[in-house]
Each structure stands twice: as C-alpha cells, then as structure tokens.
Design a protein that fits this description.
Helix content: 25-40%
Radius of gyration: 23 Å
Structural class: alpha+beta
Distance between the termini: 28 Å
Bound molecules: flavin-adenine dinucleotide
Strand order of the largest sheet: 15-12-14-13-17-18-16
Length: about 475
C-alpha cells in the first residue's frame, strides 16, 4: 500500500481515509455498486488536480473522478479492491465568469448544475441543461456522461452546450481549451473527445457553456393519447408548426403515473380517465406571455378533433406546471421505492419508437409475463427509459437474476432499429462489457486506440466504458 503522507501534507483536511468518511463516495446513489479506494482527495483548483494526477501517475495509482455521484451506470464508483483514489471535484464549484456578448458562462467542473442555472438566471440569461438530479449533479459529470435531460429537443445535450473545456490529462498536464468559439475547424476536436469519456481519458476541471435568452413565458400540458403512433403524429405536427418553441415532448405510461401518485400524496391525477400513454408537452415563447397558451390550446383542440388525443390538462398556474413536471421527474424515485429495478436508457430514431415498443413489449411479455413495465422518457429525442420492476410481492433476487437476458432481448431489438444502448447515462461499469456486442470491432478498436494514446498507463477510471 503506497504511503499517502506526502499527499496528506498537501491536502490537509481535504484527504479522506477513514472508512466512515469515504463510505458515501464508494457506492452509487442506487446502491448497486460498491468499490474501495485508498483515499478520497478533494482538490480546490485545476492545479491541485494536476498535482494529484502526477502523484498518482508516478506511483501507478488509478484515479476515479467523481462529481455529484448521481450517475446511473456506476461510472463514479471504483472497482472492488482497486488500487485507486477517488478524485472528488465537489470543492471546485466557482462560477468563473459570465459574458453577455459571447453569451457564455465559464465554470469550474464541480459546479452543481442548479447553481449554473441560477447564475445564468441572475444574469438575465438561460442555461437550458435540465435533469432530475440537477440539485446534485455537476457540470463535469454532465459533460463526462454527455448528459441529456428534458431540454435536448430544443437546446441539445451537454455536448451541444459546451464550447470549450479545461482538462488535466492522464500525465497531469493542464490543457486550457476554454475557447468561446462557435466556429473552429483547426484540427481534431479534443473537447468532443473528452465529452462522454466518463473520466477514462482525463479530468475535466472547467468548461465554457452556452447561454440562451430566458423564455418570457411557458405553456405546459399533460395530454392523454390513445397510442404512441398518435403521439408521434402530434409531435410531427407541433414541431413542424412551432419549431424551436416546442421545448419538451416527454412521455409516460399509465403504470408510471399511478406509481408516482401512489408515492406522492401531494400530487393529484391531472386527467381522470386513465389512458395508456400521457405526454408532457411544453411550449416556450420569447415574445409574449399571453399568446403561447392560446397556441397550445388551439393545437390540442385540433388534435382532439383528429382523434390524436383523448384528453388534456393545460397548467393554469406555474405551480400546476411544476406538479406536471414533478410527475414526470418523480418516476425514477417512485420506481426505486417498489424494489430493485432493471433499467434501460435506449434511443432509437424517433420514427422507430412505435415499432421498438411493440416488438420489445411482445418479446419481454412472452418470456417474463409477470414483470411490471415502467416505460417513459424523452419521446421527442427517441430516448426511452424502458424499465422494469418486479411483480407485486415478487422475489427481488430472482427478478434481478434475469437482468442479463432481459438486457439482451431489449438491446438486440434497439440495435436492429438503428438505436443505441446508452442515450444519456453512459456505459460506466453497467454496460461496458455489453457494448462489445453492439459496436463493430473496428469501432471498439478505434476507441481502444484513443484510450491508449491519451492514457497509456490505463490509470484513468479503469474498468469503465471500454469492454
Ligand atoms: C433522479 C435522477 C434523474 C436523472 N435524470 C437524468 C436525465 O434526465 N438525463 C441524464 O442524462 N442523466 C440523468 N441522471 C443521471 C445523472 O444525473 C447524470 O449522469 C449526470 O450527468 C451525472 O453527473 P454527476 O456530477 O453526478 O457525475 P458522477 O455520477 O459523479 O460521475 C459520472 C461519470 O462522470 C465521470 N466524471 C464526473 N466528473 C468528472 C470530471 N470532472 N471529469 C471527468 N470525469 C468526470 C465519473 O468518473 C463517472 O464516470 C439522473 C440521475 C438521477 C439520480
């Protein structure tokens, strides 16, 4: 075991080694993985990060970067028995600057997403990345997983929002790539390489993120639809008419709605008559506060006449809109309360969603007739959280034992429809072996060569992302 003394001297009060102090860092929020580490180091600056990485590189010690530890794929949890430290970016939480003309916010990687949203709002701008974990997840984690969330339809994923980046390389060198350029074709895009790399190529220490004008008004509706086909017809019509004013097109099944309502007595069922599917549709307007609600109402009235929807509730107040979003965002937590879950974070081309769902539902239903389907997601992005819960009162372990064959059935169908097995959560240690089945050998080999070039010692988050 290497001595941590010299590290402890430099990081006095910022180096955790006691088991009880390290415990929260050694597991994920779903408690699916447990790992071990020599220590948790909490740097304050990019230079601190560089010196920790150099210290580790000289001793062959692996580094597991961790932001808010809200990831879904076990990427921030070290492997059991690892000769590794956890590098927590939590103390690196400064908003460095906001520039109106460049329309950017420059932040430390450990900034909590909500803090960034708030800083943008305080400056009269809008930072559109938004996800259920925004009160805890960090910009560094968002970039490392290429996070998506509910604003992708209009504003894109973390990748689309990032203009520049500061990174500590696996050798402990600081690369200042904090550019603010919309246009740059001066060679390989290293920023894009680090986005989605899940800590396996280097440590993101800072980022330049794009800002947008704040919408003056929003209109939100919960809509009951008879089928996914009808939902997509509505999606096509609304997007074609309103383009960027359509800012969210989310979906959930009746199973999801009742699951959330069972666990959230503060929320009420917005539409009385149960329906197989619901949409959460949001329009945003930069111009007028009045017009946008009328537009939504008239769109829904037309859709009703065309039998595309069976009912709709338009939020009358901001609080009601928040409740609709609380239903959509409460699904993950409510599902966690009814037992262990088998999750999928898949995406297919939007046009293939109905075919995917009908094939996958049939295949799963035939082999595992008792599992509970918990299907929801970002319909406008083709990103489905195709999840399962154990049958009521069912044996949890027996259910979880089916994870691997269930994954394979689902993912084979996904890939047949031109999709991906990870749309926004990353591969981590959840899907890093499975990916070998779905990417071509040449793609896996190119990924390996990138890893070898940037991290020849293999010390950056080992056992993650790559098979
Ligand atoms: C309730 C809930 C809802 C969620 N909803 C969504 C959603 O809608 N969309 C979505 O995309 N995700 C969602 N997530 C997943 C999660 O919030 C995201 O993956 C988020 O981007 C992770 O950020 P984090 O700071 O917590 O990263 P962590 O969990 O700490 O780390 C995630 C990965 O990034 C690496 N990493 C972290 N920081 C750095 C860094 N500075 N440099 C290099 N690598 C780093 C880690 O090593 C790990 O591999 C949700 C999670 C929860 C709990």
């Amino acid at each position: 075991v290497p001595s941590l003394d010299d590290l402890a001297d430099c990081f006095s009060g910022r180096l955790l080694t006691a088991a009880e102090d390290m415990a929260p860092f050694l597991t994920d929020w779903r408690d699916l993985w447990r790992g071990s580490a020599l220590a948790v180091v909490q740097p304050d600056s990019a230079d601190d990060v560089a010196s920790v990485v150099r210290w580790c590189a000289a001793r062959g010690i692996a580094i597991v970067p961790q932001g808010g530890n809200t990831g879904m794929s076990g990427g921030a949890t070290p492997e059991p028995g690892a000769n590794a430290i956890i590098l927590s970016l939590a103390r690196m939480n400064r908003i460095r600057t906001i520039d109106g003309i460049d329309n950017v916010i420059v932040v430390d990687a450990g900034c909590i997403l909500h803090t960034v949203q708030q800083a943008a709002e305080d400056a009269g701008r809008f930072f559109p990345l938004s996800l259920g974990a925004e009160g805890s997840c960090t910009i560094g984690g968002n970039l490392a997983t290429n996070a998506g969330g509910t604003g992708v339809l209009r504003y894109g994923s973390a990748r689309d929002l990032c203009l520049g980046m500061e990174v500590v390389t696996a050798q402990g060198l600081l690369w200042d790539g904090l550019r603010r350029l919309r246009k740059d074709s001066s060679g390989y895009d290293l920023r894009d390489l680090f986005i989605g790399s899940e800590g396996t190529l280097g440590i993101i220490t800072g980022a330049v993120m794009r800002l947008y004008p704040s919408p003056a008004a929003r209109a939100t509706a919960l809509v009951a639809v008879p089928s996914i086909e009808a939902a997509l017809e509505l999606f096509d019509a609304v997007r074609n008419r309103l383009d960027t004013a359509l800012t969210a097109f989310e979906f959930l099944s009746e199973n999801c709605l009742s699951l959330v309502l069972d666990h959230r007595p503060d929320l009420r069922r917005p539409i009385q008559q149960p329906s197989p599917w619901y949409l959460l549709v949001e329009l945003s307007d930069l111009q007028t506060a009045d017009g946008i609600r009328d537009v939504l109402e008239s769109l829904l009235a037309t859709a009703f006449e065309q039998d595309l929807i069976v009912d709709a509730a338009i939020a009358e107040t901001v609080a009601q809109a928040r409740d609709f979003w609380a239903i959509r965002e409460g699904i993950a937590e409510a599902q966690g309360r009814v037992g262990k879950t088998i999750k999928h974070d898949i995406a297919v081309p939007v046009s293939r969603v109905p075919a995917f769902l009908s094939e996958a539902d049939a295949a799963i239903g035939a082999r595992w007739p008792d599992v509970r389907f918990v299907t929801f997601g970002h319909l406008g992005d083709g990103n489905i959280h195709y999840n399962f819960s154990p049958p009521d009162g069912g044996d949890q372990q027996a259910f979880l034992a089916q994870q691997q064959p269930i994954n394979q059935v689902v993912h084979d169908i996904v890939v047949r429809h031109g999709g991906t097995i990870s749309a926004e959560h990353g591969l981590g240690q959840l899907r890093n072996r499975e990916i070998a089945r779905y990417k071509s050998p040449i793609e896996i080999e190119l990924m390996r060569q990138v890893k070898q070039a940037l991290d020849p010692q293999g010390l950056m988050n080992p056992g993650k992302l790559l098979p």
